[in-house]
């Protein structure tokens, strides 16, 4: 059984009954999950019907290498709307010495949730009860939620370098295979672009260009149209760089570019002789 199949097995055993549930629990692409599901069906280890995915004798010989043990960070730090649990507040259904008092009827999110530490992707520095950081993967993001008792822990080492590494990997992936690295710390939200921190990223997206191998200049879009203009300007910057060897990067994050971009970029870049040619 390969790693993808094993991850799907664990997600179904944990209660995931839908494609979305398996994606949220594993962080795998829909294609990989579909392949794993098809193979598991052929081996008669899983069935799909009107009730979703059901295990039919999934092997129990490969359990999670780790156990939650004394850690109840997900019951404390994460938001669970289904039981009206806000972020960074211990769930009302958690009882010391007993654990979850509604375990047999817990919400689907709780059933399918497996943090990255429990999956074995992180070393013991990341144990949530110790670090105050919960990492979990979804289809298009590395999601990081931080305990409000240590809101800046994610900026410390060894955490920040690992998060920056994940961010760069997500940026470098092509097309729909890319992913974002998102941090929630109390009421604050951050997007990581390598080692560059974008505070309060907007719902409309963030346009960016590299400054160094792991830092970026960014502009937060205020509308879909603004994002499109930013991307058009970045494309023009790349054309100028290819033609003249360099192109200056506008410094003002809050500027709202308007076409035509080329004359202003040429002038800003110190290529005034090329302005009249444009």
From TrEMBL:
Q: Which InterPro entries match?
A: UPF0153_domain
**What is the originating organism of this protein?**
Bradyrhizobium nitroreducens
Query: What's the protein here called?
Result: Uncharacterized protein
Question: Which parts of the sequence are annotated with region: Disordered?
Answer: 248-278
Output the PANTHER family linked to this UniProt entry: UPF0153 PROTEIN YEIW
């Amino acid at each position: 059984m390969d790693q993808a199949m094993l991850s799907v097995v664990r997600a179904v055993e944990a209660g995931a009954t839908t494609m979305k549930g398996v994606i949220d629990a594993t962080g795998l692409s829909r294609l990989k999950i579909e392949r794993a599901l098809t193979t598991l069906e052929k081996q008669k280890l899983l069935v799909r019907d009107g009730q979703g995915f059901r295990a039919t004798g999934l092997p129990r010989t490969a359990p999670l290498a780790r156990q939650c043990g004394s850690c109840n960070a997900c019951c404390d730090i994460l938001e669970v709307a289904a039981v009206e649990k806000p972020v960074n507040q211990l769930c009302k259904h958690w009882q010391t010495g007993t654990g979850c008092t509604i375990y047999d009827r817990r919400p689907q999110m709780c059933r399918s949730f497996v943090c990255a530490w429990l999956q074995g992707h992180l070393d013991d520095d990341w144990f949530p009860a110790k670090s105050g950081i919960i990492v979990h993967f979804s289809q298009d993001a590395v999601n990081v939620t931080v305990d409000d008792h240590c809101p800046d822990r994610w900026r410390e080492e060894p955490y920040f370098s690992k998060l920056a590494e994940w961010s760069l990997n997500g940026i470098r992936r092509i097309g729909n295979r890319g992913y974002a690295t998102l941090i929630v710390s109390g009421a604050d939200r951050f997007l990581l672009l390598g080692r560059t921190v974008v505070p309060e990223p907007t719902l409309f997206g963030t346009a960016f260009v590299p400054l160094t191998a792991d830092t970026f200049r960014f502009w937060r879009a205020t509308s879909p149209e603004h994002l499109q203009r930013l991307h058009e300007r970045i494309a023009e910057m790349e054309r100028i760089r290819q033609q003249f060897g360099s192109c200056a990067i506008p410094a003002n994050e809050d500027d709202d570019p308007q076409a035509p971009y080329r004359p202003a970029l040429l002038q800003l870049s110190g290529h005034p002789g090329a302005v009249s040619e444009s």
